[in-house]
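step=encode ok
step=design start
structure_in=
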């Protein structure tokens, strides 16, 4: 098993992240789909900047076999509808957390 860590140099970080994950560009849409796909298959470590300016390292996933079964009152799944934010399951604190696409500093996960 090998690990992949994507760490971007600070001067390029904001420009690259803006192009890869945030905004309405085709590149941003592809980047978000790629990360969501990785989250659906693996536990991913995401480093991001919180609203208060502090850095957060979160091990999270969207793997169905790890997620709790949560339904809304009408029996449908609860999904995030914001383009700027993604809700994920934090595997260490065992709760739902979210991050803004434009706050991501790095993404890492293991390859099998």
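sequence_out=
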């Amino acid at each position: 098993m090998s690990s992949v860590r994507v760490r971007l140099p600070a001067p390029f970080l904001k420009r690259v992240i803006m192009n890869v994950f945030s905004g309405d560009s085709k590149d941003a849409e592809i980047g978000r789909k790629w990360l969501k796909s990785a989250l659906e298959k693996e536990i991913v470590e995401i480093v991001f900047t919180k609203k208060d300016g502090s850095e957060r390292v979160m091990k999270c996933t969207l793997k169905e076999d790890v997620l709790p079964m949560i339904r809304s009152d009408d029996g449908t799944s609860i999904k995030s509808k914001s383009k700027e934010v993604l809700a994920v399951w934090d595997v260490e604190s065992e709760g739902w957390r979210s991050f803004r696409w434009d706050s991501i500093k790095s993404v890492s996960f293991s390859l099998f």
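step=design ok
step=annotate ok -> Helices lie at 10-20, 26-41.
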